[in-house]
Design goal:
alpha/beta; Rossmann fold; 2 domains; two-stranded antiparallel ribbon; 7 helices; about 25% strand
């Protein structure tokens, strides 16, 4: 099957694996105009004679119309895909970095960490006009530890994305997909996070803890605690510094 990818430079390795999979053909790669680190991805596409294009927000359709494809694939692409773009493909799918229906939107990993999830993963799902609300094709689970962060979670997910996407494409090609409707998420979350969302609730941050933090030298002997035998350091600084 012919696949057109809307992706991001951070997904270079996953894109390489998709291109090297003989079970489908990647006919073009499109990234957002806001993606500033495209040199390696662009070089790979040029070396493999894959058209490489950049798109402004809501301007994908004219670019897509240049190509013949059955599957529109998005992974890491930062813009919301409009319905007319979704309908341009026989199948439109996305790879999302959590187990849907939990944590829709681009800050999924942040919420998974904040809510102390012990297991997360990725979801390959059909696109619809909503934000990560389409029918689920498949999911892959991975364990999380108390030492994972949104960044480590992203690295873990990016290792399993290519195989999951290829499996979903193969199911579509073989007509063996079982579409699963999404239920309601377990927790209410915001689509977008702002700096203000990093504020620690007062009930979680005591004056005693604050005094302890500011009494410690942040460079020579920063404050720390022990979690499962591992030192976790905490530094404090002020917004006028």
């Amino acid at each position: 099957m012919n696949v057109i990818c809307l992706t991001h430079s951070s997904r270079l390795q996953g894109f390489v694996e998709l291109v090297n999979n003989p079970n489908h053909t990647v006919v073009a790669c499109i990234v957002a105009d806001s993606d500033k680190n495209i040199a390696d991805l662009k070089h790979f596409c040029e070396h493999n004679k894959i058209p490489f294009l950049t798109s402004e927000k809501r301007s994908e359709l004219p670019l897509l119309q240049q190509f013949n494809y059955e599957i529109l694939l998005t992974f890491g692409y930062p813009y919301l895909i409009k319905d007319k773009v979704i309908r341009s493909a026989k199948y439109a799918i996305n790879c999302h970095p959590t187990l849907l229906p939990d944590y829709r939107g681009i800050y999924a990993a942040n919420y998974a960490i904040r809510f102390d999830d012990e297991v997360q993963g990725i979801t390959v799902h059909f696109l619809d006009p909503g934000i990560d609300t389409g029918d689920i094709i498949l999911q892959k689970k991975v364990p999380l530890t108390l030492f994972d962060t949104p960044e480590t979670m992203k690295k873990i997910n990016r290792k399993i994305e290519p195989a999951a996407i290829s499996e979903a494409i193969q199911q579509i090609d073989n007509n063996t997909v079982t579409r699963t409707k999404q239920g309601q998420p377990r927790r209410k979350t915001k689509t977008w996070l702002t700096p203000e969302d990093s504020k620690i609730p007062e009930e979680l941050f005591s004056k005693e803890l604050y005094n302890h933090l500011r009494s410690c030298d942040p460079e020579r002997y920063p404050a720390f605690t022990i979690i499962k035998g591992k030192k976790v350091y905490v530094k404090a600084w002020w917004d006028n510094e």
